[in-house]
# Entry
Amino acid sequence: MLVLSRKKGESIIIQDNIEVTVLAVDGDTVRIGISAPNHVDIFRQELYVSIQEANRESTAPPVSDVEAFMQFVRDTKEKDK
# Structure
């Protein structure tokens, strides 16, 4: 991981076409602006993780009601131990 120090108004450039600028610093909160081409997707980490999980769930094979119930029973038994 590259670690840089930047002050308000200063920027970093990534691969000639992405610019990250520090807009404001207020206590523990830093506001940043990102300029990038339209084809580059930019997400907050927590949103990106949520999207990835939803994608994995949508591509998982369907589970029958019986299989889901049996898994629930197994999980419940494990928790009781």
